[in-house]
Every structure is written in C-alpha cells, then in structure tokens.
Amino acid sequence: MSKEYVVAVVGATGAVGSRMIEMLESSTLPIKQVRLFATIRSAGKVLTFKGQDITVEETTENSFEGIDIALFSAGGGVSAKFAPYAVKAGAVVVDNTSNFRMNPDVPLVVPEVNAHALDAHNGIIACPNCSTIQMMVALEPIRQQFGLERIIVSTYQAVSGAGAKAIAETEREIKEVVNDQVDPKDVKADILPAGGDKKHYPIAFNALPQIDVFTDNDYTYEEMKMTNETKKIMEDDSIAVSATCVRIPVILAHSESVYIETKEVAPIDQVKAAISAFPGAVLEDDPSQQIYPQAVNAAGHRETFVGRIRKDLDAEKGIHMWVVSDNLLKGAAWNSVQIAETLHERGLVRATEDLKFELK
Amino acid sequence: MSKEYVVAVVGATGAVGSRMIEMLESSTLPIKQVRLFATIRSAGKVLTFKGQDITVEETTENSFEGIDIALFSAGGGVSAKFAPYAVKAGAVVVDNTSNFRMNPDVPLVVPEVNAHALDAHNGIIACPNCSTIQMMVALEPIRQQFGLERIIVSTYQAVSGAGAKAIAETEREIKEVVNDQVDPKDVKADILPAGGDKKHYPIAFNALPQIDVFTDNDYTYEEMKMTNETKKIMEDDSIAVSATCVRIPVILAHSESVYIETKEVAPIDQVKAAISAFPGAVLEDDPSQQIYPQAVNAAGHRETFVGRIRKDLDAEKGIHMWVVSDNLLKGAAWNSVQIAETLHERGLVRATEDLKFELK
After folding, report:
1. Which residues does the annotation say bind substrate (chains A, B) (predicted)?
2. Does the complex come out with an ipTM higher than 0.90?
3. Best residue in A198, A205, A230, A320 for a mutation probing chain B (most B CBs within 10 Å)
4. Most buried among A209, A245, B83, B104, using CB within 10 Å?
5. Has residue B1 got a pLDDT over 70?
C-alpha cells in the first residue's frame, strides 16, 4: 500500500487557506491526517476537514515534526520564517507567497506548464502569483506551437486577492454607496489598494491601478511579479512582459486583457485548437453567441477560461485575448494542492537531506 | 452686440442629455433660449435650465425652425432621421451618436486636438465615442512631439455609457448581491452588455468584455470605434490601434490602460511635461505618493486625468499609462458643448446652404 500523508495548511483561517482545505477534501492525494496552523490569535479555532473537527494550532518552529506536505499561505513573512523549519523537519513545502518565488533553488510551478521543474526541488516549491498562473495556462499552449516574443497585459483583479479583510472592506463600501447614498469618493478605506502602503482608497465603483506597493521603476511589485515569474516559469528570459495591474470591484476571479506577439505567425483557429487541447484551459469563444469568459462564471471553478481571441488589426504576429480564472482556486489554493498531487505522482514527496534555506 | 443663440438638446431626458443641460448652464456660449426635445413618451415633462422651467417637446421633422445649435444625444437612429432636418432648418448640429462619425462630410472633433477640422463643417459635427475622446486628450500632446506609431488599449468602462437604464440595472443587481445574498452569476440582466443584443449578463461583481455588438472581425463596434475614430481625429490612417473594451461595475468615469509606441524615443519626463501643458489634460502621476487617476475622483470633472506613465520594460519606444475621464462629461456632454463653444468662437455657427445629408 502506498504511503498516506500528513498534510499541514499554514494560514488555514485565511481566504486562501480555507480554499486549500476544500481542495484537499476533493484531492486525489492519499491523506492520513490534515493539520491546520495559523497565528496564535486564531489558534484554538475549530475548522472541519471531511466533516471531522480539526483544532487550529499556532505555527511554531517545532510544528512540523511528522508532516509530509506543508501548504503555506499566511504571508511572505511567515513563509520566510517557518518554511525552512518545515523542510528541516522532513516536509515538502508548497509556498503560496512571493517569498521564495525567485529563489534559484526553488521551482516555481504551474503543473500544466512546467511540472518537470519539480524534479529538482530542494524542499520548497513556490506557487506563482495568481495573475501570472492563469496567464501561463492560457499562453503555454500558444508558446509551445508558435513561440512567444512579448506579452502586454492589463488585469482586472478581484479584491479577494488582497485577503479576507479586503473582501469585507469592499462589501462594506458598496453597501455604504447603494444603501446609504455615500458618494463613492467619500467612502473611507483602510486596506486597499495595498494593506502595507501609506494611503488607502475606495474600491467601490472604482478601478485602482495599484496592486501591491510600487517598485523603483514605477511598476508595482504585482506587475513585476508577472514579468519575472513568466520568464522563470517559461524558462525564457527573452520573453518581453509588461503588465498594468488593476483592482476592480469584483470579489472572485481575475480577468486579464492579454496581447501577445508570437515568434511564428499563429492562425487563430490553430490557437483556439491549442488552447482547447491544453489541460486546465477551457476555450469560451463565440462572438456570434456572445460567448466569452466572465468572472462570475469562472468563480468556483479550477479551470482557466480563454476567449475573445483575435488577430491584432495591424501586427501580423499579434493576438489579443481575454483570460479569466478563480484567483483563489487556480490562482492559489488549487494550484498549490495540484503541485502537491503532482509531487506525489512523481514520487517527489520526500525529506530533503541538504538544507538550502536559512533558519531564522 | 454679438448674436445670442437658440440651443436645442435632443434626447434631453437621457443620461447624457441631462449633463448637456448642466454644461450649457455654465457655458460661455451666449444663449438666448434653450429648447428640449425627446420622444413623445417624455414630451410634456418639465426640466429646468438656470432655474427656469422648460417643457420637453417631441422631436419632429419640423422641430428645428429658429434653432441655431442642436445638440443630439438620443441614439443613432434619431440623429440619422432628424439631424438633416435640423441642418436644413439652418441649425448647426453637434451629434453625440456614432451615426455620422465616419462620414467624410462630417468633422469628428475633440476641440483640444483638432478644432481646425470644424472650419470645413457642413452643418453636422460629430462628437467622438467617449472612450476615444479621453484617449485623444492624453495622446495628442505625445503625438505632437514624438509621433505615434501604435496604440494598444484595454478599457475599464462605466455603465453610464450604456445609458440611464444600465445605471439602474447595475444598482439593482448590486443591491441583490449585497443585500439579498443572490449569487452574482444568478442575477438577472436585461440591458448590459448591449441593449440591442440577444443575451444579457450581470455586471455586478463582473467584468464584461463586450461593449456594443460584435462586428464581423470579432472586435466589437466599440473597439472598432476607437480604431477608426483615432485615425480620423489624428488625421493619420497609419496609426495602428487595437482595443479591448470592457465594462466594469463603475457608474461614472472610464479608465483606460493605454500602451503606445512613439515614432521617436520619448523621455518620460518630457511626456509628462507635454501632458501637463496640454489643455484639458491633468497629470496625476506620483507613485511615491500613490498618486494616479481614479474613476471616483474624475467623476464630475471635465478634464482627462493621466498617470502611471512609464517606459515599457523592453520596447525602447513603448510607453504605458492610465487615462481616466468622466464619460458623460468630456466623453459626451462637455465635449459636445465645448464643440458648440468652439464653433461660436470661430464664427462657424451658421446655416448651411448646400445640404449634404439625406432627408429620410
């Protein structure tokens, strides 16, 4: 009989953590036990896994004895501090934060795209940024057949990407506008656009062209994640990627207006066929019937939906498309559990001998 | 003493019409009288202009005797039918619909950009599409100094662009979700994405990549308006323009993620200076202070706000920016009244001898 795993979810009470538990409930992973971790504030809370009560424990350096797989989604600081201890204790970590993504010792994986990168893991595997993941699922089938020269992407991102507090803030703001007739510009905000930044702006009836904080080059970290992670996942630094990341008043599912230039001319019917055939991608594209991906339809699903595929009006190798996926599922919880399943399928759930990560 | 005008608003009871009346109230145009027109359904309704009651009249072929300037915003069909009669009666028509925009006998005007095109008018001047207008205000200062090779734009458009019924539908849908806990995908829709199309989808907590109906090339009419109108306004068919037009749950003000390639390399500080100096444009761009244009701040203002200006990460002549403006003001009512003011300033409010438009 094959081994059954003890699986930990670190950040179990958050927006992504709760989705991770759901994804584990329907996972093909052979699970012996699930353990749930969070900050001391949430410790003692009782959550359920397959109908069974599980008490949330505080995450400590000594939490990881006996754990085979640890899914982290409790913020970059928590991953930086505790993931190396989990690896030292013999676990494989799937980290949903940005902390280890660009570390050369850490595979950055979208299983449909670069599962092979898992083979060289050193105990930590990073799950890419939500906005990157769905773009990779849409573009990899095109890259495989026609090559990829450049990407220009404008995102329409859901507030759930900023966590449970951002969801609550959005709902509170919208109620103030529609029920209490507060002018949208006078609504008070405490979280968005970025919890850690100086100023906060309303998202109700607004579009905020800032996700995460700004970097020195006037792009945001979110935008630079899309650039850097794409190159790492596709293993090609020559792909040009520039992003504009925008938050809109949607709770679930990110939408993206993606423009690409391929290396070879890509006939649209072949592009559509390639996307249709690609695992995890669903073609929703029939303008004559007004069929195109929509956030409200993608919410709750694991697939990435692609439509509005059409030639640029001028550039021979230019193609436009509209890419939508549930940011908490494929963008986070499902991609993380899918990485765990793939590690299992490839026989890669194993303790790491040579610890490559600093214990802090 | 200079002449004072009789000004008509056709479509006076609509979302744009009511804003036209407001813009006329604060206009520099010497106004003797304002007359208001709508369909027979709205005729008899009483609106006010500078505190004075004005009864809405039914629009007929004989409505335009004695009128000097007629502002049309009652749908393309109404303009097609009645604008030629207004011209025949001696009025100058400023038409806010798409009906005459691409007619070679009709100037298509954003006053800051191509006021000179008014000189050759034949009685009808077209006001461009809302999403085009604000992009022109942002890009003309750059085009003048550095030339313009191509534009790739993704829009984040407010529902008010689809009229008063779309605003009401959006508010109703959002209340159903936040107050009655209806799942966003189960909300019923009757108007959006396009009143005249077969299917209707919820906009609450959604992003709809369809504005207006689809054309044969899988772009929507809204998208093709941005392409064709840009070339006409900038008087350069060689500018490549491809658009993705998207409706989001915002009531007022369109946002746009605009990527351009200039003919000459354009230093960012010079681009910012050019936009700052351009009439009608306001630079809002300081990432260190989280300053960028926002829909909720642009609503109610006549200017076009531009920010997030930065170099493409790879293309030497590539620049990204974020452009926001009130779609009912600069995008419609204000641009129309501003055209009327410019006609007056240039001595172009005059009857047309040779009628170029078919009386239907």
Report:
1. 157, 247
2. yes
3. A205
4. A245
5. no
